[in-house]
Amino acid sequence: MRELEERIKQDGRVLNQDVLKVDTFLNHQVDPMLMQKIGHEFYKYFQDYPITKILTVESSGIAPAILTGLEFQVPVIFARKHRSITMNKDLYVADVYSFTKKVANKISIAKTFLNSQDHVLIIDDFLANGQAVSGLTEIIQQAGAHLEGVGIVIEKTFQKGRQLIDQQQIPILSLARISGFQNGKVIFTEK
Ligand code: 5GP
């Protein structure tokens, strides 16, 4: 998505070898006009899939997920993160290791929001090692729901997340694909 790439070039800050900061439009301050276009791109790609719910993780996935849900006219669920959680029969729970914060979290959603009739589109802000998507996939499996696809705003192709998703033959669309960082600049994957 050209506009997103331009925005990353303009506003993205390369923090180290593998982390990009985009807190002027996605991770802290949010640009709703750009999010609307992002939601539309995901809709165009997945519109023929029978999506009934959008699933993401708090907090940075929420903005693109909401605008995608608006396009599909379906509810958006965000999994909550916990450092520790006691057994609770009303929750679906999965483990996620946070790539940026280097901590293990559990993520959960209430069982009332997902069931075996649901067809789910996962949306997230970044794809790095695929931990967040794996945790969400596990929750979808626990609910007996169907995973229809994954929509990612920014994918870093040099980390192993894409490989994990491709191995499971899950349809995926990433709107910007980054192959690496060089001298503080973002290098996009050739189309
Ligand atoms: P994964 O679970 O694929 O390893 O990492 C994805 C999650 O980590 C995303 O939900 C995102 O919040 C965070 N993340 C991974 N890489 C980056 C990055 O380069 N920049 C930012 N801001 N967040 C990232």
Automatic annotation (TrEMBL):
<dbReference type="InterPro" id="IPR050118">
    <property type="entry name" value="Pur/Pyrimidine_PRTase"/>
</dbReference>
<keyword id="KW-0328">Glycosyltransferase</keyword>
<comment type="similarity">
    <text>Belongs to the purine/pyrimidine phosphoribosyltransferase family. Xpt subfamily.</text>
</comment>
<protein>
    <recommendedName>
        <fullName>Xanthine phosphoribosyltransferase</fullName>
        <ecNumber>2.4.2.22</ecNumber>
    </recommendedName>
</protein>
<comment type="subunit">
    <text>Homodimer.</text>
</comment>
<comment type="function">
    <text>Converts the preformed base xanthine, a product of nucleic acid breakdown, to xanthosine 5'-monophosphate (XMP), so it can be reused for RNA or DNA synthesis.</text>
</comment>
<keyword id="KW-0963">Cytoplasm</keyword>
<keyword id="KW-0808">Transferase</keyword>
<comment type="pathway">
    <text>Purine metabolism; XMP biosynthesis via salvage pathway; XMP from xanthine: step 1/1.</text>
</comment>
<feature type="binding site">
    <location>
        <position position="156"/>
    </location>
    <ligand>
        <name>xanthine</name>
    </ligand>
</feature>
<dbReference type="InterPro" id="IPR000836">
    <property type="entry name" value="PRTase_dom"/>
</dbReference>
<dbReference type="InterPro" id="IPR029057">
    <property type="entry name" value="PRTase-like"/>
</dbReference>
<feature type="binding site">
    <location>
        <begin position="128"/>
        <end position="132"/>
    </location>
    <ligand>
        <name>5-phospho-alpha-D-ribose 1-diphosphate</name>
    </ligand>
</feature>
<feature type="binding site">
    <location>
        <position position="27"/>
    </location>
    <ligand>
        <name>xanthine</name>
    </ligand>
</feature>
<dbReference type="InterPro" id="IPR010079">
    <property type="entry name" value="Xanthine_PRibTrfase"/>
</dbReference>
<keyword id="KW-0660">Purine salvage</keyword>
<dbReference type="GO" id="GO:0000310">
    <property type="term" value="F:xanthine phosphoribosyltransferase activity"/>
</dbReference>
<feature type="binding site">
    <location>
        <position position="20"/>
    </location>
    <ligand>
        <name>xanthine</name>
    </ligand>
</feature>
